[in-house]
Each structure stands twice: as structure tokens, then as C-alpha cells.
Design goal:
282 residues; single chain; Rossmann fold; 5-stranded parallel sheet
């Protein structure tokens, strides 16, 4: 049986696939990553956890016109496979082969050299500022892990992006791990999460009940909605990012391609900085 991956020579090929085909594509990419890295070495766990994120990003956005920045190259193996390097992936980290990290000289889909961590938001903000100065309209998306988010430079980028109110999307790939399990106050704060689907279900049920109350239902519903949003933000890490000027979305299931695609599409229409909190497993 022919693999779906055999039909993918670039991100444009993803856009003709059904949701079911996109879901079947993910394990095929993981199989290729495991098979290759078992022979060449490399950073396998982070890339395995980010497969659905890579698929959804290239499905929704118009790369390389839209700029995609991966924080450290550890997450980017699926990205490399989807952007025309599938047939050379077996040369990963070999002499004369493809790099283990993103590398602009290797592909127009690689926007920055990202051999180390925590620089993606600052780099993405620089691109967003340049875009606006030139009067261009492409999207800028940064993918950063929760381990990288513990560095000060990541928060410098968040702080400045919120201050400038630039259109930039940050995807927080939260797997509660870096090289080993994360520790510290920020890690504990990020672990305060309830799923986006659970929050939506609770909100919808409450709003339906309130709106059904005769005469006062609709007026009361708007007040209840504001209270719900404040509570959800308080119960999740959204409080921190909202305080930095970001529109916070999540947490969402980072392995649910359908939810990722819907969230990315919705966020692409928002103005100002957006942070999407995606929960994944290494």
C-alpha cells in the first residue's frame, strides 16, 4: 500500500489532503524519523512530539512566504521532511547531508539558524517589525518549547512583542520536558492547565442555561461570559501571557490535527500578538 508520505514533495501537497489523510500522515513521518535517527543519531524525542504541529502549520500557512521559526532545531525534523527534504532525510547530520537544525542556506523554508534555544520569539518579532516597515502582510509564527520558555530572552521577546502589539503567533509546544523534566516556578505555573475542549464545554453549557432564563437571560449571559473568561484565564497559564499583552488560546491538544488547524486558522485573523498553548507528549 502506497504511503501518504510518498505523495508529499512540499507543503502545497498537504492542502489537498483530507483530515483523515493528515492524521494517517503523522505516524508515517514518525516512522521515518525513528528509522533515520536510529542510524544517524539526533534529537528524536522533541521532533516526534511536534509532528502534528508541523503538519498543521504547513497546512494552514503559506510557507515560505509566511515565516515559520522553530526554536532550536530539535523540533524541526517533521518540518524538514515536509519541505522537500524527505528524500535526503537519511543524510541527517552526515558529512555533506542535511543539518540537524534549521539552516536558511539549506532551504527557503528555514528562516533562521536555530542551533540553540529561546531565540525564536525575538527573531520572529524582528521579522514582524521588518514586515510592517516594508508594508508587507505575511504571517510570522514561532514554535517554542516549554523548556526554552524558561530562558530570560524568551520573555524579553514576549514583553517587547506585547509592547509593540505586533501581529505574531507564538505556539508554545508544552510537553513538560526539556532534556529532562522541567523544574522551577515557571514549570509549575505552566502545569496549571485545563484543556481547551473542557473549558469550551463548560462555558457552552453555562451560557445555554443562562440564556434560557426568561427575560433576563440574554443580558445576563454577556456578564457571565466575561466572568467565565476571567476564571478560565486564572485557572490556566493564560494569566501570565495575557498580562504581557498576548491573546492566549488554550491549552489545546497538540496531537489533534483538526483542533490545531481550526485554532491556527482562527488565530491568523486576530490582530496583535497571539500565544497558542499546545500540550504534547515526547
Amino acid at each position: 500500500m502506497k504511503r501518504i508520505l510518498d505523495r508529499i514533495s512540499g507543503p502545497g501537497d498537504l492542502k489537498g489532503l483530507s483530515l483523515r489523510e493528515l492524521q494517517l500522515l503523522a505516524p508515517e513521518i514518525r516512522e521515518l524519523i525513528v528509522d533515520t535517527v536510529s542510524k544517524t543519531g539526533g534529537h528524536i524525542a522533541s521532533s516526534l512530539g511536534a509532528v502534528e504541529i508541523a503538519i498543521a502549520l504547513h497546512y494552514v500557512f503559506d510557507t515560505p512566504r509566511d515565516k515559520l521559526i522553530w526554536d532550536v532545531g530539535h523540533q524541526a525534523y517533521a518540518h524538514k521532511i515536509l519541505t522537500g527534504r524527505k528524500d535526503r532525510f537519511h543524510t541527517l547530520r552526515q558529512l555533506g547531508g542535511i543539518s540537524g537544525f534549521t539552516k536558511p542556506s539549506e532551504s527557503p523554508y528555514d528562516t533562521v539558524v536555530s542551533g540553540h534555544s529561546s531565540t525564536s520569539i525575538s527573531a520572529g518579532l524582528g521579522m514582524a517589525v521588518a514586515r510592517d516597515l516594508r508594508g508587507e502582510d505575511y504571517k510570522v509564527v514561532c514554535v517554542i518549547g516549554d523548556g526554552s520558555m524558561t530562558a530570560g530572552i524568551a520573555f524579553e521577546g514576549l514583553n517587547q512583542a506585547g509592547h509593540l502589539d505586533k501581529d505574531i503567533i507564538v505556539v508554545l509546544n508544552d510537553n513538560e520536558m526539556s532534556i529532562s523534566r522541567n523544574v522551577g516556578a515557571l514549570s509549575t505555573f505552566l502545569s496549571r492547565k485545563i484543556t481547551g475542549r473542557f473549558a469550551t464545554k463548560v462555558k457552552n453549557e453555562i451560557e445555554s442555561f443562562v440564556e434560557s432564563i426568561p427575560r433576563i437571560g440574554r443580558g445576563l449571559a454577556s456578564i457571565v461570559k466575561k466572568a467565565e473568561d476571567s476564571l478560565i484565564t486564572f485557572l490556566t497559564p493564560g494569566m501570565l501571557f495575557e498580562g504581557l499583552g498576548f491573546h492566549y488560546i488554550g491549552p489545546i491538544d497538540g496531537h489533534d490535527i483538526g483542533e490545531l488547524i481550526d485554532t491556527l486558522k482562527d488565530s491568523s485573523h486576530l490582530k496583535g500578538p497571539v500565544l497558542i498553548h499546545a500540550l504534547t507528549k515526547k
